[in-house]
Amino acid sequence: MDAAALRAAHPVLEHTAYLNAGTCGPLSHAALEQARSGWERAGTEGRSKGYYERYMAITPRLRDAYARLLAADPADVALTTCTTESIVRVLGGLDLKPGDEVLTAPDEHPGLLGPLITLRERRGITIRTAPLADLAGAVEPQTALVACSHVSWTTGALAPADLAELDIPVLLDGAQGIGAVPVDVDALGCAFYAGSGQKWMCGPVGTGMLWIAPQWSGRVEPQGLAYANLADANAGLQATPWPDARRHDATTIAVEQMEVALAAHDVLEGFGWAAVHERAAALAASLADGLREHGRVVAPRGATTLVSWESEDPPAEAARLAQAGVVVRNLPTTPYVRASVGAWNDAGDLERLLGALG
């Protein structure tokens, strides 16, 4: 892979050690140009027949792109606005009742915990927690669903492989997985995989995806059918939902957003996803080693792209690094500062971070 060319494709890296793709990935020149041209075209041509023809053209292309990264059939992939919307669609669509238990980890992202709290308040389900690494062994007879991260947003630890052996459904929050590490939904053994388009896919905020295993497709009720979810929207009250994952698509995603998301994806795919994943993981491992050599305590992690280390004052340390041109983030309620290392980074970025730590 031409690592220098990948780096040059993202303008923020010209002056900044950008290590925050776990929040939002760096936008590429191609994505920025697509944003400009897409909005200008809508402005000069108007938004009528041609505009919706663009919508009809881009939707299956983006769905196919996401499906390839999931090693999935496009028919099983819904287009959503973010990971949390995907999670809400699964939790709201499952027939969970009072007495059913959802097992999760205590340090999950609020984007997962919030929907679980809502489900508890509205349906009377029970939520129980266990450490991420121990979830499979913590399943009990009343457990109806396991919901957890594919990659922990705080430490970069991977969900345990033995989750694939459970005989109950598993919902994986893939916000820090898709685009960052290889994903094969069948190999993961999950029933549902929710992901973001703005993080490791380097797309715009307001894009994401939801994969539902075929055997679970008929057991997740759509959360309100809108125009895009109907096979024949002109059939009036006789309209029926699409028989595939399109029934779970977001009510609407702007044409311009989807075009930018695909442009961002295509930049990374052009360098080869396997190479992107391999380089990012190697750089992250190198940073973890460097931090340890500097006497920092690194959080237990997997072969992922997130590296978190302990700090006496995480907000202050993140702010100090920002002043040095190094963009990371502190993780509220934890002792950690987190760096999100992408294939677009290089050794200079890592050295800049380590040097700024003092």
Describe the structure.
There is one protein chain. The model has no long low-confidence stretch (mean pLDDT 97). 47% of the residues are buried. This protein is 38% helix and 14% strand. The protein has 2 domains: 3-28 and 271-357, Aspartate Aminotransferase, domain 1 (Alpha-Beta Complex); 32-269, 3-Layer(aba) Sandwich (Aspartate Aminotransferase, domain 2). Helix 3 packs parallel to helix 8 and helix 4 (83-93) packs parallel to helix 5 (110-123). It has 358 residues and is of the alpha/beta class. Strand 11 and strand 12 form a beta hairpin. It has helices spanning 3-8, 29-45, 49-70, 83-93, 110-123, 135-138, 185-188, 255-270, 273-293, 314-323, 347-357; strands at 17-18, 77-80, 101-104, 126-129, 143-149, 170-173, 192-196, 208-212, 306-310, 326-327, 329-330, 336-340. A 7-stranded mixed sheet has the order 2-8-7-6-5-3-4, with helices on both faces. It has a 3-stranded antiparallel sheet with strand order 9-12-11, covered by helices on one side. The chain is built from 11 helices and 12 strands.
In terms of topology, how is this protein built?
Elements lengths: L2 H6 L8 E2 L10 H17 L3 H22 L6 E4 L2 H11 L7 E4 L5 H14 L2 E4 L5 H4 L4 E7 L20 E4 L11 H4 L3 E5 L11 E5 L42 H16 L2 H21 L12 E5 L3 H10 L2 E2 L1 E2 L5 E5 L6 H11 L1
Parallel strand pairs: 1-10, 3-4, 3-5, 5-6, 6-7
Antiparallel strand pairs: 2-8, 7-8, 9-12, 11-12
Helix pairs in contact: 2-8, 3-8, 4-5
Quick rundown:
By secondary structure, the protein is of the alpha/beta class.
